[in-house]
Design a protein that fits this description.
This protein is of the alpha/beta class. Helix content is about 45%, strand content about 10%. It contains 33 helices and 26 strands. The strands form ten sheets. The protein has a five-stranded parallel sheet with strand order 6-7-8-5-9, with helices on both faces. A hairpin with a 2-residue loop joins strand 15 and strand 16 (about 515-520). The longest helix has 28 residues, at about 590-615.
Amino acid sequence: LPPPSIQMEQHSQSFYHAAPAIQILPLVYQLKLTYTFKNGTGSKRSRHMDKTQALQSLLDGTAAEEEIDLLRQSLASGEIFIGGNVNHSILVQGSENNVQVFQLTPQTLELLGGHQFLGNLDRDLTRGEIDRGLGQLEVELPLRAPVLLRQFQEQARRLRPTLKTSSKSLSDQSRGEQIEALAQINGLCLEALDLSFNALCLGEEPPEYDSRSPFRGLESFRPEDSEFFFGREELTRKLVRRIKAHPFLAVLGASGSGKSSLVMAGLIPALHLDIKPVIFRPGTNPMEPLKTAGENALIVVDQFEELITSTREEATRKEFIARLLDATKHNKVIITMRSDFLSEVAVYRDLNQEVQNHLENVPPMNMDELRRAVVGQAGAVGLRFEADLSHQILENVAGEPGAMPLLQHALWELWNRRHGRNLRASEYRAFGGVRQAISSAAEKVFGECVRAEQEQIHDIFLRLTRLDESDERRDTRRRVAINDLIPSGQDQSSIVPLLDKLANARLIVKSVNEGKTEIEVAHEALIRHWERLGEWLKQDRDDLRLRDGLSSLTRQWESAGRRDDSLLLGGWRLKGAIAISAKYPLNDAEHRFIALSIAAERRRMFQRVGFLVSILTLLAVFLALGPGRWAYYEYQRRQILRANPPFEFGAGEIIFGTDAPDRSEEEPQLQTVHVDAFKMDVTEATNGQYRICVEAGVCDEPKDTTFYDKADLKQHPVVSVTFDQAAAYCAWLGGRLPTTYEWERAARGQKGRSWPWGESLPTPANANLLIILNSEQQEWFEPGGTFPAASFKTGATPEGIYDLLGNVWEWTTTKMGNAYIQRGGAWDAVMYHITNIRISVGNQPEQSVGFRCAY
């Protein structure tokens, strides 16, 4: 073969030389060869050389039987394809845009067995028939080969304009485009429908097609999926014998061993039950489903380890175990459990004895079982693997812990990229194979989301993961009620579309329990293999434990009817909860729990002081100032809110980020973001305001008091406060720190103005910055420190929000990596856009950093 660049040029030239010599009709025979070039002399290159030589020999009439067989195999595999009209046959070879045309005789076509690929082509197709064929193929592709739809649409867009004009009236170039587009469409039609496009145009019905997916992805097999469950036939028969011999059976295995699928899709259907089995997971309330079981029923407790990880009350665990074992007198009971939780079950003596005596360990599937599973599933719906693809997949999964969910997810991804009944190796490589399938799927969804949705995904998966308290880090999934995933102040509409997107990608599973929608990670393999989630869990582990504790106490308090004040937080635990509330989105129940804890703490302070007053009568007058001072600080807190009422911003879409050519890497690109309604303080928190919080015993003094203890700085923004200190102050006021989106909404308005006050550049009259930008030059301006809050009247926004540019950087709750975004610039900062950001670790206070609160 000549070098590819020369070959392309020759093909292009020969096409336009040959085309005029042929009477080109709406559809013509064409045989297309796809080339793959490698440097040097590799086997792949030799194979294509053989194919090309075989083709030339065929046209010369000197082809040997082996060469004809090679071309027949290439036709059958789809590497080359034929399309066209019986009387005007051509052969096309080369790349998609550069082709070479040859006359292909009916005898040559017959020799290759090409008629089986073409259907009835005894007459020329009309333009109307071609158009109808395009319409039908466009309907069939989403069902049979959605991955090919875009490629079809591109070719259809090329072809349809040429159908409006007689073929004889087209230019040589347009006729060439028509030929090429028809060839491409015929190849796609053969791939997806097992029928040539010509036959489809003439009304032939495509072969029947089963569009169901036999692969479960990360989800376990269910009883209704038994027709797709293969590979565990012998173990299924063994379990049937064991449960018939004794009413209790414990099926144990490692995570990903397929124990749940074995019981659900293997054992239960094999029992041929007359009544519907009672199937449930323990969760937080295991007693309710157990009560629904009558006599002579099959009770299946799936993922029994949830009794340890989710059921908090020890008394509930013991009662459930006692009732479950008692149920074996009149029912058959099967439990499935991760084998690494066996030691934690051992403390329950009666249950441990039953488990030890009637235990069946589920080993990982061996290669023969995996092969039977893969082949059986594909065969159930008529799918066929490309040569050696199934073997390659099995080799990739060999030795992997939890091989079955990895394999099923990879096969599900491959099914989504199916070419009709064909599963292609190229598609398998495209998503990275078995090892990358889960991570690739998660990253694809994450990458398609805007930043606000990505932050929601971050919080969703952290809440859906239960952290292991031991050093082994056996993190597991947990079910969470959908309401617990909704940030405070929002409703389900703010998160349901995103949850649907995650569910459609098989990353999470929705279920309904006692009328409530619950969400969980589809499989723990996602927790183990999604690197981004692993990094989130690693970075935030200690804080996440604190939030988990807060969530658990909130649920206990809610379950107690919100009446047990002993569950409310106080002291250092309350301060920790306030800090956590600034770092992570909390739901309404958690926010309410913290607010009532703060109120209870104030009452306790008052009661403690009042008790001392009643006992120490000799100091009655002095100690009477105790509750008076508490009342004073409460009054001062309310005065701060009254004197500086926050401005309320309505919910809506806003312009966020910038498309400026000198945009820094940290600045977000221009985009539209939805922001819920919120309120924001019109000024930054001042030293005087912060001091009241410190004296009230809620806030800690700034790390550096240089700019805090001076009387003349009382109205200046408080600085040198950490993220947690700023968050504690806002929580004391009844608010929180703003997000970066809320901050920019306040600074730029809904339509994205350039600066807080409008479009004019900053001047020393409206911003306290180190460098002021004007239309002529950069002017150095050295204020040497902060100004009192609201000093720059002309720098206020139309809503009356001051100092959003300059004075001090302001903390936000939005994270970038393990640090927080700061906004607005400071007296020592250079700001080129209002969208400039800075990131800082939360425990590093600086003299140029302050904050304002949102609500």
